[in-house]
Write a structure and sequence with these properties.
The structure holds 2 protein chains of 2 kinds. By secondary structure, chain A is mainly alpha-helical. Helix content of chain A is 59%, strand content 6%. Chain A is elongated. Classes of the chains: A mainly alpha, B mainly alpha.
C-alpha cells in the first residue's frame, strides 16, 4: 500500500466512498482545509483519496465518458448512391423526421456540398409524389440569409421522399449561446435574426410549424440558420391544413409535444400565430435555460396539460432553482442581475408570445421583433402585462352615452336656470318659482368674484358645494324644481369625480320626481340613468348593469327602441359590460348605438363623441390599441374644434388619448401629452382634482418606465397627496405599470404611504 | 412485453435481490426493446437510427398501455430499463466488432452530431466495470446507465431519481473515477 500506487478494491471503495462524496461536494478551498485534517485522522485513506481526486481533475479535463455513444457504421449504407444530380457521401446525422446525409453534385458542376434529408414517411401514390415535389419547390423559393435553402425535393425509387438542403454546419442555438456564454442582449440579437427569417417566410405565406432549438443552428461564424421551413406541412400529407406533427421524437423526450402550440394539440387551425408561440418557447429557453413547462423531463401527459392549461412561469421567476446560478453564469451575469434583466419587459414579451389563444399573441412576428428591438434600445415595449386585458388598471374616463356633459359648470347651471326662468315667467302662476331661482342663483354667485375668469379665483367645486348646501333652504317646498336642480348638481359632482355625492343627490332626485311628476316622466327616467351611471363610476358594475337593464326595458316601453334616450342607456350598458370585460357583447351594442347616434344626432354630436370615446376604450381592452388610437384622435379633433380645450370633456378625452398612447408604448408621446394636460387640469378643475392626480399618476408611471425613478417617486407622492382616488392608491403596489420600481426600497415606502392616505380618506366613493 | 402481467412481481422480486427474477426481468425488457427497435426499422424500411431515450420511452408507453398498474412509476421503469438498454447497446457494439456487416440499425444517444470514435472493446470493458460497480454502489452504476448509455441529461436523471442535480453530478463524477481506475489502471483485488 504505497502512496505512489494506492490500491483500490471494491471493499476499499466502499470505505472511501463517503469521504469522496464529501470532498467532491465542497469547494476547492474547503476541500484543501478539510484534507489537511483528513490526513491526520485517516492517514490510511488520505493517500488514496488524494490520488482519486487527482484522477478526478484529469477526468474533468479529459471529459472522460462525455462523448456520444458510438454509432455502428455497418448498416446498409446509402453512400455512393445517386439521387437526382447528387451523389450521397456519408451520414451526418439524424433527426426526428429522418436521416440526413451529406452529398455533392454528381455532375461536378458545382463544388457545393448539400445535405439530403430523408423523411420518415412513404409517399404511396404517384399523385402524392408529385404533390410532394411541387410543394417542395414552393418552399424552395424561400430565399433568406437566415433560412437554410431548400434546393430540391424528390422521391427515391423506393418511394422515400427526400429534400436537398443547404448544408449547414453549426451548433443548435441554445447550446451555442451557452457555450459562448452569450449575454441576454446578444441572445436577443441572435433571436432577432430568426424572427427576420420567420417574418420573411410568413410574408410568403409559409408557416414553419416546427420551430425548436434543433432546427436553429448557429455556424462557427455566429450566423443563424433556420432549418426545415415548412417541412412539417409536407409531412402532414394530404390533410395539408390539419395540424402538422408536433410530436418531437428526439432530444430525449420521446414523442412529446415539447414545442407544440396549443392549437397543434387540439387540431385547430395552424397559422402564423403557431410560429409565434414556438418562437416564444425558443426565446424562453434562450433566456431562462429551461422549457416554459419547467425543468424536465416531462411525461407526454404532463406536457399536454402544461401546453393547454398552465401559464408558463414568468422567466424572471423561473430562475429560482439551484441550477439557475449556472444558467446565469452561462449568460455572463449574476443570478440576481439575470432576474432583474428578465423582470418586466422580457417577462411581458415572452408571455405575450405564449398566450394560449392564438389571437392574443403577437399579431405578427414583426411586432414581436419590434418589441425586442425596443427592449434592446431601452425603449418601452408595446406588449402590456397580461393584467391589462383582464383588469382595468387605469381609470379611463367613460362618458354617458346620452347626456351632454358641460365643463363650465356655472354656465351649465346658469343656462339651465335662465332657461327655466324664461319659460316660467311666461306663466304667471310660476313667477314666484322663477324668483326663487333668481335668488338661489344670486346666492351661488356671491362666492365667485365676477371680475375674474372661473378657474382663477374659485374652483367649480366651491360653487357647487355652496349650491348644494342651499338647495333645501333657498328653494322652498318645490319638489319638482328641487329634483331638477339636484339632478343638475349631481351631474356637476359627477364631473368632479365626487360620485358618492352625485349618487346621494340622484337618489333624492329620483324619489322627488317620481312623487311629483311620475315614474314614466322623462325627467325621472333621466335621473335613473344618471343614478346607474354614478354606480358605474364607483365601480359597482353589477348594480349599474341591473339598473341599466331595467331602465332600458322601461324606456323601450315608453319611448320605443329607436329613441335617443333608450339608445343612450344602451350605450351606458355597453360601457358597463366593457368594464366587466364582456368585450364582444359590449362592442356589438356600442356599434349599434354609434350607428343610431351618427344617423340621428349627427357625427359631431356630443353623445356621438362620447360613444366613440367609450368604444375606443373597449378596443384598447381588446388589445386593438392602434384602432383605439385612431378613433380617439378623431374624437378629440372634433371635440376641440366644437368645445374648445378648457372643457372638462375635452380634458377627459385628452386623458384617455394619453393613456392609449402609453398603452401602445409611445411613452415620449404620452409624456408630451400629459404635461400640458396637467397644467390645464390644475387650472380648470383644481389642483387637487382626481383628474390632476390621475394625470400626475400616469406621468409617474411613464417616468418609471423611462427609467427616471427619482421623478417617478416625486410625482407618485404628489398624486397620492393631491387627490388620487383611494381605489387607485390601494392598487399601487400591484400596478404593473410601476414594475420598474419594484425592488427599490422607496417603492415599498410609497405603497405604505398610499394605503395610509387612502384609509384616512375613507371616502364612501371607494367601491372596494 | 410478452409477460406484462408478471412484470410487477418480477420488479418487486428483483428489488428484493431475487437473482432469477432479476434475470427474467432483464430478459423480458431486453426482448421488448429489441422487438421495438426491429419494429421501428421495419416500419421505416430505410436506414434509420433511433435514440436510446426514444426507444426507452416508446417501450415504457407500450408497456404502460398494456398494464397501467404495473408501470405507474415511469422512473422506476427507467432505472431498470436503462441497464437493459446498456446490454442492448453493448451487444450491438460486440456484434459489429465480430462481423463486418449485419448490424441492422443503430442506437444513438441524445444529439444528432458526429461522435468521437470509441473503441468497442473499451465500451465492453466499461460495461463490465459498471457491473462490478453495481455490486458496490448500484446507485452510481444506474446514473452511468442513464447518462452515458441512454443519453439522459443530469436534470432528467435528477427528476427521475428525485434527487438534486448536483447530487446526480457528484454520483456521476464518483462513478467516473471508479470506472477510470477499473479500466485504465486496473483494480487490485
Amino acid at each position: 500500500m504505497s502512496e505512489i500506487s494506492p490500491e483500490l478494491s471494491p471493499r476499499k471503495w466502499q470505505e472511501i466512498s463517503p469521504y469522496l462524496d464529501h470532498a467532491l461536494g465542497v469547494s476547492e478551498e474547503e476541500r484543501a482545509a478539510w484534507l489537511i485534517n483528513f490526513r491526520k485522522e485517516r492517514s490510511d485513506l488520505a493517500g488514496l483519496l488524494e490520488k482519486l481526486l487527482e484522477d478526478h481533475r484529469a477526468l474533468v479535463e479529459e471529459r472522460f465518458l462525455e462523448y456520444q455513444l458510438p454509432r455502428p457504421v455497418d448498416e446498409p449504407s446509402m453512400a455512393g448512391e445517386i439521387l437526382g444530380s447528387y451523389r450521397v457521401l456519408s451520414r451526418i446525422g439524424e433527426g426526428g423526421m429522418g436521416n440526413v446525409w451529406l452529398a455533392e453534385r454528381a455532375d461536378g458542376r458545382f463544388e457545393r456540398q448539400v445535405a439530403i434529408k430523408f423523411l420518415n414517411f412513404a409517399v404511396a401514390s404517384q399523385g402524392g409524389a408529385e404533390r410532394f415535389k411541387r410543394e417542395g419547390r414552393l418552399l424552395g423559393q424561400l430565399a433568406h440569409p437566415h433560412i437554410a435553402e431548400l434546393i430540391d425535393a424528390g422521391v427515391t425509387s423506393r418511394g422515400e421522399p427526400y429534400l436537398v438542403l443547404d448544408y449547414v454546419s453549426g451548433r443548435q442555438i441554445d447550446h451555442y449561446c451557452d457555450e459562448h456564454k452569450l449575454g441576454i442582449e446578444k441572445r436577443i440579437e441572435l433571436f432577432l435574426d430568426i424572427l427576420g427569417a420567420v417574418a420573411h417566410a410568413h410574408t410568403n405565406l409559409i408557416v414553419h410549424r416546427d420551430i425548436k432549438p434543433t432546427n436553429v443552428l448557429v455556424s462557427s461564424a455566429g450566423e443563424v440558420k433556420l432549418l426545415d421551413f415548412g417541412i412539417a406541412r409536407l409531412l402532414a400529407g394530404d390533410a395539408g391544413s390539419a395540424a402538422g406533427p408536433p410530436l418531437t421524437m428526439e432530444d430525449g423526450g420521446a414523442m412529446t409535444p415539447l414545442y407544440a402550440a396549443p392549437e397543434q394539440l387540439t387540431g385547430d387551425a395552424i397559422t402564423t400565430a403557431t410560429d409565434v408561440y414556438a418562437l416564444g418557447v425558443l426565446l424562453y429557453i434562450l433566456l431562462v435555460g429551461e422549457h416554459p413547462a419547467g425543468p424536465g423531463p416531462h411525461s407526454p401527459a404532463e406536457l399536454i396539460k402544461a401546453v393547454l392549461n398552465q401559464d408558463a412561469t414568468a422567466p424572471s421567476r423561473a430562475t429560482a432553482g439551484k441550477k439557475d446560478a449556472q444558467a446565469a453564469e452561462k449568460r455572463g451575469v449574476s443570478l440576481d442581475r439575470l432576474r432583474r434583466m428578465l423582470r418586466g419587459d422580457l417577462d411581458t414579451i415572452v408571455h405575450k408570445a405564449l398566450r394560449k389563444p392564438p389571437h392574443e399573441r403577437y399579431g405578427s412576428v414583426t411586432e414581436m421583433a419590434d418589441d425586442l428591438r425596443r427592449y434592446l434600445a431601452h425603449q418601452p415595449v408595446s406588449a402590456r402585462p397580461d393584467t391589462l386585458r383582464y383588469r382595468a388598471r387605469k381609470y379611463l374616463r367613460r362618458h354617458l352615452a346620452g347626456v351632454a356633459v358641460t365643463a363650465v359648470l356655472i354656465l351649465l347651471l346658469a343656462g339651465f336656470v335662465a332657461m327655466q326662468a324664461v319659460q316660467l315667467r311666461r306663466i304667471a302662476r310660476e313667477r314666484d318659482r322663477a324668483d326663487r331661482i333668481a335668488n338661489f342663483m344670486t346666492g351661488i354667485f356671491k362666492v365667485a368674484d365676477p371680475g375674474n375668469k372661473l378657474g382663477d379665483a374659485v374652483t367649480a367645486r366651491d360653487v357647487l358645494d355652496q349650491a348644494a348646501a342651499q338647495i333645501d333652504t333657498r328653494l322652498g317646498h318645490d319638489p319638482e324644481l328641487q329634483a331638477r336642480l339636484m339632478y343638475v348638481m349631481a351631474m356637476a359632482y359627477n364631473n368632479l369625480g365626487l360620485y358618492a355625492r352625485s349618487q346621494t343627490l340622484l337618489e333624492r332626485s329620483v324619489q322627488l320626481s317620481t312623487a311629483a311628476i311620475g315614474a314614466d316622466d322623462v325627467q325621472t327616467l333621466r335621473s335613473r340613468q344618471r343614478l346607474a351611471w354614478s354606480l358605474f363610476q364607483q365601480g359597482r358594475f353589477a348594480d349599474a348593469e341591473s339598473q341599466q337593464r331595467s331602465l332600458i326595458a322601461a324606456e323601450q316601453n315608453i319611448f320605443g327602441p329607436q329613441n335617443a334616450e333608450t339608445i343612450g342607456t344602451m350605450g351606458d350598458l355597453a360601457t358597463t359590460l366593457s368594464e366587466e370585460r364582456r368585450l364582444p357583447e359590449s362592442e356589438k351594442i356600442q356599434r349599434e348605438v354609434l350607428d343610431f347616434q351618427k344617423r340621428v344626432l349627427g357625427p359631431e354630436a356630443t353623445y356621438t363623441l362620447a360613444s366613440m370615446d367609450n368604444l375606443a376604450i373597449t378596443l384598447l381592452y381588446e388589445g386593438r390599441a392602434a384602432e383605439a388610437e385612431e378613433l380617439e384622435s378623431k374624437v378629440l379633433e372634433v371635440q376641440r374644434r366644437v368645445h374648445g380645450t378648457e372643457n372638462l370633456t375635452t380634458i377627459h378625452y385628452m386623458m384617455n388619448e394619453a393613456e392609449i398612447e402609453a398603452g401602445m408604448g409611445a411613452l415620449d408621446k404620452a409624456e408630451g401629452m400629459c404635461l400640458p394636460l396637467l397644467d390645464l387640469e390644475r387650472r380648470v378643475i383644481g389642483p387637487d382634482s382626481p383628474e390632476a392626480a390621475e394625470t400626475t399618476y400616469s406621468l409617474a408611471s411613464i417616468k418609471a418606465k423611462l427609467g427616471k425613478a427619482d421623478d417617478a417617486f416625486l410625482l407618485l407622492r404628489q398624486a397620492i397627496d393631491h387627490g388620487l382616488l383611494p381605489r387607485e392608491a390601494l392598487a399601487l403596489g400591484s400596478d404593473p405599470d410601476f414594475q420598474a420600481l419594484h425592488g427599490d426600497p422607496r417603492f415599498d415606502g410609497i405603497v405604505v404611504h398610499a394605503r395610509q392616505v387612502a384609509a384616512k380618506k375613507a371616502s364612501p366613493a371607494v367601491s372596494n | 412485453m410478452r409477460s406484462a402481467p408478471s412484470l410487477l412481481a418480477l420488479l418487486d422480486a428483483a428489488e428484493r435481490g431475487d437473482k432469477p427474477a432479476a434475470d427474467a426481468l432483464f430478459a423480458g425488457l431486453y426482448s421488448e426493446l429489441h422487438r421495438l427497435a426491429k419494429y421501428e426499422l421495419a416500419r421505416h424500411g430505410a436506414p434509420m437510427s433511433l435514440g436510446a431515450t426514444t426507444l426507452l420511452h416508446k417501450a415504457y408507453i407500450e408497456i404502460a398501455a398494456k398494464d397501467t398498474a404495473v408501470f405507474d412509476d415511469c422512473n422506476r421503469f427507467m432505472g431498470y430499463a436503462s441497464r437493459v438498454m446498456r446490454g442492448l447497446i453493448i451487444d450491438f457494439a460486440r456484434s459489429r466488432h465480430a462481423q463486418k456487416r449485419g448490424g441492422q440499425f443503430e442506437i444513438t444517444s441524445l444529439e444528432a452530431e458526429i461522435e468521437d470514435v470509441v473503441d468497442d472493446r473499451e465500451l465492453v470493458r466499461i460495461s463490465e466495470a459498471l457491473d462490478e460497480l453495481a455490486t458496490v454502489e448500484p446507485d452510481l452504476a444506474q446514473v452511468v446507465d442513464l447518462k452515458f448509455f441512454c443519453g439522459f441529461s443530469f436534470a432528467e436523471v435528477a427528476a427521475m431519481k428525485n434527487i438534486s442535480e448536483r447530487t446526480v453530478q457528484r454520483k456521476w463524477e464518483k462513478a467516473r473515477i471508479y470506472l477510470h481506475r477499473s479500466i485504465r489502471t486496473g483494480l487490485e483485488r
